[in-house]
Design a protein that fits this description.
Number of helices: 13
CATH architecture of one domain: 3-Layer(aba) Sandwich
Distance between the termini: 26 Å
CATH topology of one domain: Rossmann fold
Radius of gyration: 67 Å
Strand order of the largest sheet: 2-1-4-5-6-7
Strand content: 15-25%
Length: 584
Protein backbone atom coordinates (compact mmCIF):
# COMPACT_ATOMS: atom_id res chain seq x y z
CA UNK A 1 0.00 0.00 0.00
CA UNK A 2 1.60 3.22 -1.24
CA UNK A 3 -0.59 6.13 -0.08
CA UNK A 4 -0.63 8.93 -2.66
CA UNK A 5 -2.92 11.53 -1.13
CA UNK A 6 -5.82 12.15 1.24
CA UNK A 7 -8.79 14.49 0.96
CA UNK A 8 -10.71 15.25 4.17
CA UNK A 9 -13.99 17.16 4.60
CA UNK A 10 -15.62 17.82 8.00
CA UNK A 11 -13.95 14.90 9.77
CA UNK A 12 -12.73 15.30 13.36
CA UNK A 13 -11.37 18.91 13.62
CA UNK A 14 -10.62 19.23 9.89
CA UNK A 15 -12.95 21.32 7.75
CA UNK A 16 -11.21 20.91 4.39
CA UNK A 17 -7.76 19.45 3.81
CA UNK A 18 -5.88 17.80 0.94
CA UNK A 19 -2.43 16.35 1.42
CA UNK A 20 -0.10 14.55 -0.98
CA UNK A 21 2.51 12.13 0.38
CA UNK A 22 6.19 11.92 -0.46
CA UNK A 23 7.74 8.68 -1.66
CA UNK A 24 10.82 9.03 0.57
CA UNK A 25 12.42 11.36 3.09
CA UNK A 26 11.78 12.37 6.66
CA UNK A 27 8.76 14.68 7.11
CA UNK A 28 7.77 16.47 10.33
CA UNK A 29 4.18 17.38 11.10
CA UNK A 30 3.88 19.92 13.91
CA UNK A 31 1.18 22.33 14.91
CA UNK A 32 -0.33 24.83 17.29
CA UNK A 33 -3.76 24.96 18.93
CA UNK A 34 -4.61 28.67 19.14
CA UNK A 35 -7.80 27.87 21.00
CA UNK A 36 -5.75 26.43 23.90
CA UNK A 37 -2.48 28.22 23.19
CA UNK A 38 -0.78 24.80 23.18
CA UNK A 39 0.95 22.43 20.78
CA UNK A 40 -1.45 19.67 21.81
CA UNK A 41 -4.80 19.27 20.10
CA UNK A 42 -3.86 21.10 16.90
CA UNK A 43 -5.19 18.29 14.73
CA UNK A 44 -1.91 16.73 13.67
CA UNK A 45 -3.03 13.18 14.46
CA UNK A 46 -6.48 13.84 12.94
CA UNK A 47 -5.03 13.54 9.43
CA UNK A 48 -3.84 9.99 9.98
CA UNK A 49 -6.80 9.06 12.14
CA UNK A 50 -8.95 10.09 9.18
CA UNK A 51 -6.86 7.83 6.89
CA UNK A 52 -7.40 4.91 9.28
CA UNK A 53 -11.15 5.70 9.39
CA UNK A 54 -11.34 5.90 5.58
CA UNK A 55 -9.55 2.62 4.82
CA UNK A 56 -10.79 0.47 7.72
CA UNK A 57 -13.71 2.32 9.30
CA UNK A 58 -11.81 2.29 12.60
CA UNK A 59 -9.90 4.84 14.67
CA UNK A 60 -6.88 4.32 16.95
CA UNK A 61 -8.58 6.46 19.57
CA UNK A 62 -11.81 5.70 21.38
CA UNK A 63 -14.35 7.97 19.77
CA UNK A 64 -18.10 7.75 19.20
CA UNK A 65 -19.69 7.71 15.78
CA UNK A 66 -21.17 11.17 16.30
CA UNK A 67 -17.73 12.59 17.23
CA UNK A 68 -16.22 11.53 13.88
CA UNK A 69 -17.97 14.45 12.19
CA UNK A 70 -16.66 17.92 12.83
CA UNK A 71 -18.72 19.67 15.44
CA UNK A 72 -21.70 21.50 13.96
CA UNK A 73 -21.76 19.52 10.69
CA UNK A 74 -24.12 16.78 9.51
CA UNK A 75 -22.00 15.07 6.91
CA UNK A 76 -18.37 14.52 6.08
CA UNK A 77 -16.07 12.29 4.07
CA UNK A 78 -12.51 11.09 3.61
CA UNK A 79 -11.00 9.94 0.32
CA UNK A 80 -7.67 8.13 0.25
CA UNK A 81 -5.84 7.18 -2.93
CA UNK A 82 -3.15 4.52 -2.81
CA UNK A 83 -1.56 1.96 -5.08
CA UNK A 84 -1.14 -1.81 -4.69
CA UNK A 85 -0.10 -4.57 -7.06
CA UNK A 86 -3.60 -4.34 -8.60
CA UNK A 87 -3.29 -0.64 -9.46
CA UNK A 88 -4.70 2.63 -8.14
CA UNK A 89 -7.35 2.39 -5.42
CA UNK A 90 -9.62 5.24 -4.37
CA UNK A 91 -11.57 4.67 -1.16
CA UNK A 92 -14.21 7.14 0.05
CA UNK A 93 -15.94 6.70 3.41
CA UNK A 94 -18.68 9.10 4.42
CA UNK A 95 -20.77 10.01 7.40
CA UNK A 96 -23.69 9.30 7.38
CA UNK A 97 -22.46 5.82 6.79
CA UNK A 98 -21.45 4.90 3.23
CA UNK A 99 -18.40 3.45 1.52
CA UNK A 100 -17.14 3.34 -2.07
CA UNK A 101 -14.23 1.29 -3.44
CA UNK A 102 -12.79 2.24 -6.85
CA UNK A 103 -9.94 0.38 -8.57
CA UNK A 104 -8.43 1.85 -11.72
CA UNK A 105 -11.52 4.09 -12.17
CA UNK A 106 -13.94 1.14 -11.86
CA UNK A 107 -16.30 0.85 -8.90
CA UNK A 108 -15.84 -2.44 -7.01
CA UNK A 109 -18.91 -4.11 -5.52
CA UNK A 110 -17.13 -5.71 -2.55
CA UNK A 111 -17.41 -5.87 1.23
CA UNK A 112 -14.92 -4.43 3.71
CA UNK A 113 -13.58 -7.92 4.37
CA UNK A 114 -13.14 -8.62 0.66
CA UNK A 115 -11.42 -5.25 0.24
CA UNK A 116 -8.89 -6.04 2.99
CA UNK A 117 -8.21 -9.39 1.38
CA UNK A 118 -7.59 -7.63 -1.94
CA UNK A 119 -5.07 -5.16 -0.49
CA UNK A 120 -3.52 -7.93 1.69
CA UNK A 121 -3.43 -5.72 4.79
CA UNK A 122 -5.82 -5.81 7.74
CA UNK A 123 -6.31 -3.17 10.40
CA UNK A 124 -4.02 -4.80 12.96
CA UNK A 125 -1.17 -5.04 10.45
CA UNK A 126 -1.79 -1.45 9.36
CA UNK A 127 -1.58 -0.19 12.93
CA UNK A 128 1.48 -2.30 13.71
CA UNK A 129 3.79 -1.48 10.82
CA UNK A 130 2.36 1.53 8.99
CA UNK A 131 0.77 3.82 11.55
CA UNK A 132 2.34 4.12 15.00
CA UNK A 133 -0.33 5.82 17.07
CA UNK A 134 0.23 7.68 20.32
CA UNK A 135 -0.56 4.48 22.24
CA UNK A 136 2.44 2.15 21.66
CA UNK A 137 0.69 -1.06 22.71
CA UNK A 138 0.18 -2.03 19.05
CA UNK A 139 3.88 -2.00 18.21
CA UNK A 140 5.38 -5.39 17.42
CA UNK A 141 8.00 -5.48 20.20
CA UNK A 142 5.30 -4.56 22.74
CA UNK A 143 3.17 -7.55 21.75
CA UNK A 144 3.26 -10.66 23.88
CA UNK A 145 4.60 -13.89 22.40
CA UNK A 146 1.14 -15.12 21.41
CA UNK A 147 0.26 -11.84 19.66
CA UNK A 148 3.62 -11.81 17.86
CA UNK A 149 2.87 -15.27 16.57
CA UNK A 150 -0.66 -14.26 15.56
CA UNK A 151 0.66 -11.19 13.73
CA UNK A 152 2.98 -13.29 11.59
CA UNK A 153 0.27 -15.90 11.06
CA UNK A 154 -2.08 -13.19 9.79
CA UNK A 155 0.69 -11.73 7.66
CA UNK A 156 1.29 -15.10 5.98
CA UNK A 157 -2.40 -15.96 6.06
CA UNK A 158 -1.40 -18.94 8.20
CA UNK A 159 -3.88 -17.99 10.90
CA UNK A 160 -6.51 -19.46 8.64
CA UNK A 161 -4.70 -22.83 8.61
CA UNK A 162 -6.40 -23.88 11.83
CA UNK A 163 -9.79 -22.80 10.52
CA UNK A 164 -9.09 -24.43 7.17
CA UNK A 165 -7.92 -27.59 8.93
CA UNK A 166 -11.16 -27.58 10.91
CA UNK A 167 -13.12 -27.26 7.66
CA UNK A 168 -10.99 -29.94 5.98
CA UNK A 169 -11.43 -32.30 8.95
CA UNK A 170 -15.19 -31.77 8.82
CA UNK A 171 -15.06 -32.43 5.11
CA UNK A 172 -13.08 -35.62 5.78
CA UNK A 173 -15.79 -36.75 8.19
CA UNK A 174 -18.42 -35.99 5.58
CA UNK A 175 -16.42 -37.79 2.89
CA UNK A 176 -16.09 -40.83 5.14
CA UNK A 177 -19.85 -40.84 5.69
CA UNK A 178 -20.38 -40.53 1.96
CA UNK A 179 -17.88 -43.34 1.38
CA UNK A 180 -19.76 -45.57 3.85
CA UNK A 181 -23.02 -44.72 2.12
CA UNK A 182 -21.40 -45.52 -1.22
CA UNK A 183 -20.31 -48.91 0.18
CA UNK A 184 -23.88 -49.53 1.34
CA UNK A 185 -25.17 -48.64 -2.11
CA UNK A 186 -22.64 -50.95 -3.76
CA UNK A 187 -23.68 -53.80 -1.44
CA UNK A 188 -27.36 -53.09 -2.06
CA UNK A 189 -26.95 -53.03 -5.83
CA UNK A 190 -24.91 -56.25 -5.76
CA UNK A 191 -27.59 -57.95 -3.65
CA UNK A 192 -30.31 -56.69 -5.98
CA UNK A 193 -28.45 -57.97 -9.04
CA UNK A 194 -27.96 -61.36 -7.37
CA UNK A 195 -31.66 -61.58 -6.44
CA UNK A 196 -32.73 -60.60 -9.96
CA UNK A 197 -30.42 -63.16 -11.52
CA UNK A 198 -31.88 -65.91 -9.30
CA UNK A 199 -35.42 -65.05 -10.46
CA UNK A 200 -34.57 -65.44 -14.16
CA UNK A 201 -35.61 -68.78 -15.74
CA UNK A 202 -32.77 -70.89 -17.01
CA UNK A 203 -34.67 -71.76 -20.20
CA UNK A 204 -36.04 -69.42 -22.82
CA UNK A 205 -39.78 -69.52 -23.51
CA UNK A 206 -39.48 -67.91 -26.94
CA UNK A 207 -39.91 -71.30 -28.67
CA UNK A 208 -43.07 -72.00 -26.67
CA UNK A 209 -44.40 -68.55 -27.61
CA UNK A 210 -43.74 -69.28 -31.29
CA UNK A 211 -45.50 -72.66 -31.02
CA UNK A 212 -48.56 -71.18 -29.25
CA UNK A 213 -48.69 -68.33 -31.75
CA UNK A 214 -48.78 -70.84 -34.61
CA UNK A 215 -51.50 -72.87 -32.90
CA UNK A 216 -53.60 -69.78 -32.23
CA UNK A 217 -53.23 -68.67 -35.85
CA UNK A 218 -54.28 -72.17 -37.03
CA UNK A 219 -57.36 -72.20 -34.80
CA UNK A 220 -58.28 -68.67 -35.93
CA UNK A 221 -58.08 -69.92 -39.53
CA UNK A 222 -60.44 -72.81 -38.70
CA UNK A 223 -62.87 -70.43 -37.02
CA UNK A 224 -62.76 -68.11 -40.02
CA UNK A 225 -63.41 -71.07 -42.38
CA UNK A 226 -66.69 -71.96 -40.69
CA UNK A 227 -69.74 -70.73 -42.63
CA UNK A 228 -72.83 -71.33 -40.52
CA UNK A 229 -76.22 -70.33 -41.94
CA UNK A 230 -79.18 -70.45 -39.64
CA UNK A 231 -82.05 -72.61 -41.21
CA UNK A 232 -84.87 -70.75 -42.98
CA UNK A 233 -88.04 -71.79 -41.09
CA UNK A 234 -90.23 -69.04 -42.45
CA UNK A 235 -92.46 -71.45 -44.44
CA UNK A 236 -92.84 -73.70 -41.42
CA UNK A 237 -93.69 -70.66 -39.34
CA UNK A 238 -96.31 -69.63 -41.96
CA UNK A 239 -97.85 -73.13 -42.00
CA UNK A 240 -97.84 -73.20 -38.21
CA UNK A 241 -99.58 -69.85 -38.11
CA UNK A 242 -102.25 -71.09 -40.57
CA UNK A 243 -102.81 -74.28 -38.54
CA UNK A 244 -102.88 -72.22 -35.34
CA UNK A 245 -105.60 -70.01 -36.92
CA UNK A 246 -107.69 -73.09 -37.89
CA UNK A 247 -107.12 -74.65 -34.50
CA UNK A 248 -108.22 -71.44 -32.82
CA UNK A 249 -111.38 -71.31 -34.96
CA UNK A 250 -112.20 -74.95 -34.16
CA UNK A 251 -111.64 -74.33 -30.51
CA UNK A 252 -114.10 -71.39 -30.71
CA UNK A 253 -116.66 -73.69 -32.40
CA UNK A 254 -116.19 -76.28 -29.65
CA UNK A 255 -116.61 -73.55 -27.06
CA UNK A 256 -119.88 -72.42 -28.72
CA UNK A 257 -121.14 -76.01 -28.99
CA UNK A 258 -120.40 -76.57 -25.30
CA UNK A 259 -122.30 -73.39 -24.52
CA UNK A 260 -125.26 -74.59 -26.72
CA UNK A 261 -125.23 -77.97 -25.00
CA UNK A 262 -125.40 -76.18 -21.71
CA UNK A 263 -128.37 -74.19 -23.02
CA UNK A 264 -130.04 -77.42 -24.24
CA UNK A 265 -129.68 -78.78 -20.78
CA UNK A 266 -131.23 -75.63 -19.40
CA UNK A 267 -134.10 -75.88 -21.95
CA UNK A 268 -134.64 -79.51 -21.10
CA UNK A 269 -134.92 -78.56 -17.47
CA UNK A 270 -137.33 -75.78 -18.39
CA UNK A 271 -139.46 -78.10 -20.57
CA UNK A 272 -139.59 -80.60 -17.80
CA UNK A 273 -140.73 -77.91 -15.48
CA UNK A 274 -143.37 -76.63 -17.91
CA UNK A 275 -144.62 -80.08 -18.56
CA UNK A 276 -144.95 -80.78 -14.90
CA UNK A 277 -146.68 -77.48 -14.12
CA UNK A 278 -150.52 -77.49 -13.59
CA UNK A 279 -152.26 -74.17 -13.37
CA UNK A 280 -154.87 -74.20 -10.51
CA UNK A 281 -156.59 -70.94 -9.64
CA UNK A 282 -158.67 -70.18 -6.52
CA UNK A 283 -162.40 -69.47 -6.79
CA UNK A 284 -162.00 -65.82 -6.03
CA UNK A 285 -159.00 -63.88 -7.17
CA UNK A 286 -158.01 -60.46 -5.80
CA UNK A 287 -156.43 -58.04 -8.21
CA UNK A 288 -152.96 -57.05 -6.95
CA UNK A 289 -153.38 -53.63 -8.52
CA UNK A 290 -156.82 -52.49 -7.51
CA UNK A 291 -157.72 -55.14 -5.01
CA UNK A 292 -160.86 -56.01 -7.06
CA UNK A 293 -162.22 -59.51 -6.81
CA UNK A 294 -163.25 -61.69 -9.68
CA UNK A 295 -164.21 -65.35 -10.21
CA UNK A 296 -161.88 -68.09 -11.54
CA UNK A 297 -164.41 -68.96 -14.18
CA UNK A 298 -163.72 -65.64 -15.71
CA UNK A 299 -159.98 -66.62 -16.31
CA UNK A 300 -160.46 -69.96 -18.04
CA UNK A 301 -159.87 -68.61 -21.47
CA UNK A 302 -156.75 -66.85 -20.36
CA UNK A 303 -155.24 -69.97 -18.82
CA UNK A 304 -155.86 -72.01 -21.86
CA UNK A 305 -154.19 -69.39 -23.92
CA UNK A 306 -151.16 -69.47 -21.63
CA UNK A 307 -150.97 -73.22 -21.80
CA UNK A 308 -150.91 -73.09 -25.55
CA UNK A 309 -148.05 -70.64 -25.50
CA UNK A 310 -146.08 -72.94 -23.25
CA UNK A 311 -146.58 -75.82 -25.61
CA UNK A 312 -145.29 -73.74 -28.51
CA UNK A 313 -142.18 -72.76 -26.56
CA UNK A 314 -141.48 -76.35 -25.67
CA UNK A 315 -141.81 -77.39 -29.32
CA UNK A 316 -139.36 -74.66 -30.37
CA UNK A 317 -136.89 -75.64 -27.74
CA UNK A 318 -136.99 -79.24 -28.73
CA UNK A 319 -136.40 -78.30 -32.36
CA UNK A 320 -133.33 -76.27 -31.49
CA UNK A 321 -131.98 -79.05 -29.32
CA UNK A 322 -132.26 -81.46 -32.21
CA UNK A 323 -130.33 -79.10 -34.48
CA UNK A 324 -127.50 -78.76 -31.97
CA UNK A 325 -127.21 -82.44 -31.27
CA UNK A 326 -126.70 -83.31 -34.91
CA UNK A 327 -123.84 -80.74 -35.36
CA UNK A 328 -120.12 -82.03 -35.62
CA UNK A 329 -117.87 -80.96 -32.68
CA UNK A 330 -114.62 -80.81 -34.91
CA UNK A 331 -112.57 -83.14 -32.69
CA UNK A 332 -111.18 -85.12 -35.58
CA UNK A 333 -110.10 -81.99 -37.44
CA UNK A 334 -108.39 -80.65 -34.31
CA UNK A 335 -106.50 -83.89 -33.90
CA UNK A 336 -105.45 -83.73 -37.54
CA UNK A 337 -104.21 -80.17 -37.17
CA UNK A 338 -102.17 -81.06 -34.07
CA UNK A 339 -100.60 -83.98 -35.89
CA UNK A 340 -99.61 -81.66 -38.72
CA UNK A 341 -98.04 -79.25 -36.19
CA UNK A 342 -96.04 -82.11 -34.71
CA UNK A 343 -94.82 -83.01 -38.18
CA UNK A 344 -93.81 -79.39 -38.79
CA UNK A 345 -91.97 -79.25 -35.43
CA UNK A 346 -90.06 -82.44 -36.22
CA UNK A 347 -89.12 -81.06 -39.60
CA UNK A 348 -87.89 -77.82 -38.02
CA UNK A 349 -85.85 -79.74 -35.44
CA UNK A 350 -84.25 -81.80 -38.21
CA UNK A 351 -83.28 -78.57 -39.95
CA UNK A 352 -81.56 -77.30 -36.75
CA UNK A 353 -79.62 -80.49 -35.95
CA UNK A 354 -76.85 -79.79 -38.50
CA UNK A 355 -76.85 -76.09 -37.57
CA UNK A 356 -76.39 -76.92 -33.87
CA UNK A 357 -73.66 -79.43 -34.63
CA UNK A 358 -71.75 -76.89 -36.73
CA UNK A 359 -72.30 -74.22 -34.04
CA UNK A 360 -71.03 -76.62 -31.37
CA UNK A 361 -67.93 -77.40 -33.41
CA UNK A 362 -67.32 -73.67 -33.91
CA UNK A 363 -67.64 -72.99 -30.19
CA UNK A 364 -65.20 -75.83 -29.52
CA UNK A 365 -62.66 -74.21 -31.83
CA UNK A 366 -63.27 -70.83 -30.18
CA UNK A 367 -62.79 -72.37 -26.73
CA UNK A 368 -59.54 -74.00 -27.83
CA UNK A 369 -58.43 -70.70 -29.35
CA UNK A 370 -59.25 -68.81 -26.13
CA UNK A 371 -57.35 -71.37 -24.04
CA UNK A 372 -54.32 -71.18 -26.30
CA UNK A 373 -54.47 -67.38 -26.28
CA UNK A 374 -54.60 -67.38 -22.47
CA UNK A 375 -51.59 -69.70 -22.37
CA UNK A 376 -49.85 -67.45 -24.90
CA UNK A 377 -50.54 -64.39 -22.74
CA UNK A 378 -49.11 -66.17 -19.71
CA UNK A 379 -45.95 -67.02 -21.64
CA UNK A 380 -45.68 -63.48 -22.96
CA UNK A 381 -46.18 -62.09 -19.43
CA UNK A 382 -43.40 -64.36 -18.26
CA UNK A 383 -41.23 -63.12 -21.11
CA UNK A 384 -42.12 -59.50 -20.24
CA UNK A 385 -41.28 -60.10 -16.60
CA UNK A 386 -38.00 -61.67 -17.62
CA UNK A 387 -37.28 -58.66 -19.84
CA UNK A 388 -38.09 -56.31 -16.97
CA UNK A 389 -35.85 -58.26 -14.64
CA UNK A 390 -33.05 -58.09 -17.21
CA UNK A 391 -33.68 -54.36 -17.55
CA UNK A 392 -33.58 -54.01 -13.75
CA UNK A 393 -30.33 -55.97 -13.72
CA UNK A 394 -28.91 -53.63 -16.38
CA UNK A 395 -30.10 -50.55 -14.45
CA UNK A 396 -28.71 -51.92 -11.20
CA UNK A 397 -25.45 -52.71 -12.99
CA UNK A 398 -25.24 -49.11 -14.27
CA UNK A 399 -26.00 -47.78 -10.78
CA UNK A 400 -23.44 -50.17 -9.34
CA UNK A 401 -20.80 -48.84 -11.75
CA UNK A 402 -21.80 -45.27 -10.85
CA UNK A 403 -21.62 -46.09 -7.14
CA UNK A 404 -18.22 -47.70 -7.60
CA UNK A 405 -17.08 -44.64 -9.57
CA UNK A 406 -18.39 -42.35 -6.82
CA UNK A 407 -16.70 -44.53 -4.22
CA UNK A 408 -13.39 -44.32 -6.09
CA UNK A 409 -13.78 -40.54 -6.41
CA UNK A 410 -14.67 -40.19 -2.72
CA UNK A 411 -11.71 -42.31 -1.67
CA UNK A 412 -9.42 -40.26 -3.90
CA UNK A 413 -10.83 -36.98 -2.55
CA UNK A 414 -10.63 -38.37 0.98
CA UNK A 415 -6.96 -39.23 0.47
CA UNK A 416 -6.26 -35.75 -0.90
CA UNK A 417 -8.05 -34.04 1.99
CA UNK A 418 -6.31 -36.23 4.55
CA UNK A 419 -3.01 -35.14 2.98
CA UNK A 420 -4.13 -31.49 3.11
CA UNK A 421 -5.20 -31.94 6.74
CA UNK A 422 -1.75 -33.29 7.53
CA UNK A 423 -0.15 -30.31 5.80
CA UNK A 424 -2.40 -27.92 7.74
CA UNK A 425 -1.50 -29.52 11.07
CA UNK A 426 0.92 -27.71 13.44
CA UNK A 427 3.70 -30.03 12.28
CA UNK A 428 2.84 -29.63 8.62
CA UNK A 429 3.40 -26.95 6.01
CA UNK A 430 2.46 -24.08 8.32
CA UNK A 431 5.28 -25.00 10.70
CA UNK A 432 7.77 -25.15 7.84
CA UNK A 433 6.55 -21.81 6.45
CA UNK A 434 6.64 -20.21 9.90
CA UNK A 435 10.22 -21.36 10.49
CA UNK A 436 11.25 -19.98 7.09
CA UNK A 437 9.55 -16.63 7.77
CA UNK A 438 11.19 -16.38 11.17
CA UNK A 439 14.59 -16.89 9.56
CA UNK A 440 13.85 -14.09 7.09
CA UNK A 441 12.45 -11.87 9.85
CA UNK A 442 15.51 -12.36 12.04
CA UNK A 443 17.82 -11.64 9.09
CA UNK A 444 15.93 -8.43 8.23
CA UNK A 445 16.05 -7.25 11.88
CA UNK A 446 19.78 -8.02 12.01
CA UNK A 447 20.41 -6.04 8.80
CA UNK A 448 18.74 -2.98 10.33
CA UNK A 449 20.20 -3.32 13.82
CA UNK A 450 23.78 -3.57 12.60
CA UNK A 451 23.41 -0.06 11.13
CA UNK A 452 22.04 1.62 14.26
CA UNK A 453 22.96 -0.70 17.12
CA UNK A 454 25.91 -2.89 16.09
CA UNK A 455 26.33 -4.70 19.39
CA UNK A 456 22.69 -5.74 19.62
CA UNK A 457 20.71 -8.71 18.25
CA UNK A 458 16.99 -9.41 18.42
CA UNK A 459 15.53 -12.74 17.32
CA UNK A 460 12.22 -14.52 17.35
CA UNK A 461 12.47 -18.18 18.26
CA UNK A 462 9.90 -20.92 17.80
CA UNK A 463 9.64 -24.36 19.28
CA UNK A 464 7.07 -27.13 19.36
CA UNK A 465 5.17 -28.10 22.46
CA UNK A 466 3.22 -31.34 22.80
CA UNK A 467 0.44 -30.77 25.29
CA UNK A 468 -2.05 -33.59 25.81
CA UNK A 469 -1.20 -34.94 22.37
CA UNK A 470 -1.83 -31.53 20.72
CA UNK A 471 1.34 -30.23 19.05
CA UNK A 472 1.56 -26.45 19.07
CA UNK A 473 4.11 -23.87 17.94
CA UNK A 474 5.30 -21.59 20.73
CA UNK A 475 7.06 -18.23 20.41
CA UNK A 476 9.64 -16.34 22.37
CA UNK A 477 11.99 -13.44 21.64
CA UNK A 478 15.69 -13.22 22.45
CA UNK A 479 17.38 -9.82 22.91
CA UNK A 480 21.15 -9.76 23.28
CA UNK A 481 23.19 -6.59 23.99
CA UNK A 482 26.97 -6.80 24.20
CA UNK A 483 26.67 -10.56 24.42
CA UNK A 484 24.29 -10.48 27.36
CA UNK A 485 20.67 -11.58 27.24
CA UNK A 486 18.18 -8.83 28.11
CA UNK A 487 14.41 -8.59 28.27
CA UNK A 488 12.67 -5.91 26.23
CA UNK A 489 11.04 -4.63 29.41
CA UNK A 490 14.44 -3.87 30.92
CA UNK A 491 15.36 -1.40 28.17
CA UNK A 492 15.24 2.32 28.65
CA UNK A 493 12.59 4.34 26.87
CA UNK A 494 14.98 5.40 24.13
CA UNK A 495 16.38 1.91 23.67
CA UNK A 496 12.92 0.38 23.53
CA UNK A 497 11.74 3.03 21.04
CA UNK A 498 14.81 2.45 18.85
CA UNK A 499 14.33 -1.33 18.92
CA UNK A 500 10.65 -0.93 18.12
CA UNK A 501 11.41 1.26 15.11
CA UNK A 502 14.02 -1.14 13.79
CA UNK A 503 11.73 -4.14 14.18
CA UNK A 504 8.76 -2.34 12.61
CA UNK A 505 10.78 -1.31 9.58
CA UNK A 506 12.25 -4.82 9.33
CA UNK A 507 8.69 -6.13 9.18
CA UNK A 508 7.84 -3.48 6.57
CA UNK A 509 10.76 -4.65 4.41
CA UNK A 510 9.79 -8.27 4.96
CA UNK A 511 6.22 -7.58 3.82
CA UNK A 512 7.48 -5.81 0.73
CA UNK A 513 10.29 -8.23 -0.23
CA UNK A 514 8.62 -11.55 0.64
CA UNK A 515 4.90 -10.92 0.42
CA UNK A 516 4.85 -8.15 -2.18
CA UNK A 517 3.01 -5.76 0.16
CA UNK A 518 4.65 -2.37 -0.21
CA UNK A 519 3.90 0.06 2.64
CA UNK A 520 4.50 3.78 2.38
CA UNK A 521 4.59 6.15 4.12
CA UNK A 522 5.33 5.09 7.68
CA UNK A 523 3.52 7.31 10.17
CA UNK A 524 4.93 7.81 13.67
CA UNK A 525 2.74 9.73 16.13
CA UNK A 526 4.93 11.35 18.81
CA UNK A 527 7.64 8.68 18.72
CA UNK A 528 9.93 10.83 20.90
CA UNK A 529 7.49 11.11 23.78
CA UNK A 530 9.32 10.57 27.09
CA UNK A 531 12.77 10.64 25.51
CA UNK A 532 15.51 13.06 26.49
CA UNK A 533 17.24 15.27 23.91
CA UNK A 534 20.03 12.78 23.28
CA UNK A 535 17.65 9.88 22.77
CA UNK A 536 15.51 12.01 20.44
CA UNK A 537 18.54 12.87 18.36
CA UNK A 538 19.54 9.19 18.23
CA UNK A 539 16.03 8.27 17.14
CA UNK A 540 16.02 10.95 14.44
CA UNK A 541 19.36 9.70 13.13
CA UNK A 542 17.90 6.19 12.95
CA UNK A 543 14.86 7.52 11.12
CA UNK A 544 17.06 9.52 8.77
CA UNK A 545 18.93 6.37 7.76
CA UNK A 546 15.67 4.43 7.32
CA UNK A 547 14.05 7.21 5.26
CA UNK A 548 16.43 6.89 2.33
CA UNK A 549 14.12 4.38 0.62
CA UNK A 550 10.78 5.29 2.21
CA UNK A 551 8.81 8.28 3.44
CA UNK A 552 8.53 8.61 7.19
CA UNK A 553 6.04 11.09 8.63
CA UNK A 554 6.67 12.07 12.24
CA UNK A 555 4.00 13.86 14.26
CA UNK A 556 5.79 15.88 16.95
CA UNK A 557 5.87 19.31 18.61
CA UNK A 558 9.48 19.65 19.72
CA UNK A 559 10.59 22.69 17.70
CA UNK A 560 14.28 22.10 18.38
CA UNK A 561 14.18 18.97 16.20
CA UNK A 562 12.85 20.65 13.05
CA UNK A 563 16.25 21.16 11.48
CA UNK A 564 16.78 17.42 11.31
CA UNK A 565 13.79 16.86 8.95
CA UNK A 566 13.70 17.17 5.16
CA UNK A 567 10.23 18.75 5.19
CA UNK A 568 7.89 20.30 7.74
CA UNK A 569 4.09 20.62 7.59
CA UNK A 570 2.53 23.12 10.00
CA UNK A 571 -1.04 22.63 11.17
CA UNK A 572 -2.85 25.28 13.18
CA UNK A 573 -6.21 25.10 14.88
CA UNK A 574 -8.46 28.11 15.27
CA UNK A 575 -12.08 28.14 16.42
CA UNK A 576 -12.08 24.36 16.48
CA UNK A 577 -10.94 24.04 12.83
CA UNK A 578 -7.55 22.55 11.85
CA UNK A 579 -5.81 23.64 8.63
CA UNK A 580 -2.39 23.33 7.01
CA UNK A 581 -0.87 26.80 7.22
CA UNK A 582 2.65 26.17 5.94
CA UNK A 583 4.81 23.56 4.20
CA UNK A 584 8.57 24.09 4.24
Amino acid sequence: MLIQNVNITNILSIQKLELGFEQNGLVLIDGWNHDRNSANGAGKSSIFDAISFCIYGKLPRKITASEILRKGTKEGSVTVEFTTNEGLWSVTRCRPKSIQFILNNKTQDITQEEFEQRIKLNYTQFMTVLYSAQTPVSKFVALNDSDKKQFLLDLMDLSSFKEKKFLIDNKIKDLKKQSINADLLITRFKSAISAYEESINEYSNSERIEQLTAEVNGLNSCVSAFVIVEPDVSKIDTANKALDAKLLNLERIQTNRRRCLSMIQQHQDKIQMLQNTEIILPDVIECPQCNAEFCASDTTTTIESLQADVDVQVANLQGRMADIEVQDDGSELITSIKEKKILLANKQQEMFVTYRDNLKNLNNYKTQTANKQAELRIEKNIETQQSRIIEQINNATVKLKDAVSVKVGLDSELQINETISLLLSPMGASAYIMDSILDLFNKSVADHLIQVWPNTTYELLSFKENKNGDVRSKFSDLLTIDGHSRSVGSLSGGERAALSLVVDFAITDLMSDIFGISLNPSILDEPFYGLDATSRETMINILDRLSKNRAIYVIDHFSESKAMFNKTINIHKRSGISNIVAVS
